[in-house]
Amino acid sequence: MQYNSIEELEAYFKEEIKRVSDKEIQEIEAEMEEIRKKVISEMEDSAKSNAAIISEQEMKEMTSEHAIALSRLQDENNRKLMNKRRELTTSLFDEVTEKLRQFSRTPEYVTSMTGKLKALTGKYKSHAIICVGPQDEKLLPQFLEVYQGDIEGFVDKAIELGGFRLRFEDEGIVIDETFDATLKDEKEKFYSNSNLIIS
Questions:
Q1: Which comes out higher in pLDDT, residue 131 or 21?
Q2: In angstroms, rounded to a whole number, what is the distance separating the alpha carbons of residues 175 and 74?
Q3: What average pLDDT does range 177-188 have in this prediction?
Q4: Radius of gyration of the CA atoms of the chain, in A
């Protein structure tokens, strides 16, 4: 192509430079757009990953806090439950104790105790010692008379609820018919079999 003047040549170069630079600008812009998309995608992926890590960490913390709160609540509930059971058990045995005290003041009590002593007469050959509580001291002569054998009697302050303890020292035998011992045994059986232990 022939140019008639320097102006035409200059215009041609300007046009060519503009065309080449526009093309390069478009390529650079396209490359920048690719880079922008890639950076945004990487940032989004990183943000999602960080959000998942944070979310997982928060979930672990919430689960741990929940487990601690639940454990505290269970401990508190167990304490309340044990206190209530202790209260009910104490009330139950207080009531039983009072009924035993009342029974020990009745004629049926005297009949029951003398019947047990009669049944033991002659079973053992050695000297017998009978112990009763202070509340039964007045019944001691009657008990000694009912037991037909070699016997002596004592008052034992440890016997609080009634009944008697019969000892045959030569034979090493003790027969405990006290309400105190019976109540103690029943308490032990009750605690062993009443499911008072919380698992």
A1: 131
A2: 46
A3: 90
A4: 50
